[in-house]
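Lecture 7 notes: from sequence to structure.
We start with the chain below.
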Amino acid sequence: MFFAVVGQTGSVILFVTSGLGVLLLGTYFLCLAAHYYRLTFQDTAVGIDRVEWPSDSFVDWFSGSLALLVQVLLWIMPAGFLARFLAPVWLPEQAPLRFAVLMGLAFWLLFPLGLLLSTASQQASGVAVRLLLALPTLVLFYLLSGVVCLITVALGYGALFADSLLGLLGAIVGLPVALLWHARLVGRLGWLVGREEVSLGKDPKQGEDELEQAVSGKVRPRSGKRKRMSRPEVLDPWAVPEEEPIEADLIEESPQATARSAPASYEPQRVEGYGLAAEEPPSRPALELPTTELPKPRRKRRPVKGEASGAASARVGQTEESGLEKQLSSEELQRERRLREREELPPPRSLFFHGVWEFPFYPSNLSALVWLSLYGAGAWGLARFMISVSPFSGGAK
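Predicted structure tokens for the same chain:
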């Protein structure tokens, strides 16, 4: 009895510990997968063939990955309610398979459209119209992405509920590849929607002019008649005022003119000015200077070898911080420049075939595949161990 209680307590401790590990490692794995998916979709949608993976920390890309995971959850959530509703009539004894099939269908049909509508720069109605105009391309996209989603559901279900080592290895290697395939396909569809957005109902040259004006901040005048506005008057306070014309009756006449015009009995009076004083000015008193001595300048002490002052260390810290800010700003500027120059990039030779199926095997993408495989294998191993030591199922048989 004692050994049974001790064994049950140990199983509970192992179950809780492994459950915490599954929660942490599984969350990081899902966020990392969403991060790689989001970067692949964004760069492919603007026409970039080779995705450059930035060396950002987990804090930098966690918010974007979490937003994408929430969006995925919102689109597949109705499938979960439908699976619960169809439990009595469809696959009543195989609930995991029923949930996997319905959620895979929801992800296949609803998530790509939801992602395109949420990331489009125009209204949702315009994106829907452009997709309907490219209906054959949309049908081809759903056929190819359906195959990818079928492979993903089969590998994931086999890895979770099958006991075959071959199925586990296939899931560890195949799921990251399928993830990049699907992100590439959705990105190519987004590229097509963006290109149609530029070409429909608008001259490409006009679109380039508007983009240039938006980047430079200068607005060119539109063609056509425009109402001319009255020019505002500007008052310069430093301008020399114009002299007003002097009337003739206010002009003072000269003495000669006055003498000529005056009668004969008129005698001009002599005006006397001020004279000089006869007394001499008093002498100024002598200026007495202070006799206090000025303080002697202090000599600066030379720093001892190996000793750094606080001001010097602060300047070094500011220099390093400014260098880091310049580096980050340069990376952001380079990414923004690539996004601005997306119209100059050459279009793909084939929308859903060239550069799609070989994309996961690019040399620059091998690191993404390796990290996804390692974290996926770790999360799967902890999940199977948690199921094996679970006290609620009786443990492994």
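Points to note: Residues 2-45 form the longest helix (44 residues). Residues 319 and 325 are 10 Å apart (CA to CA).
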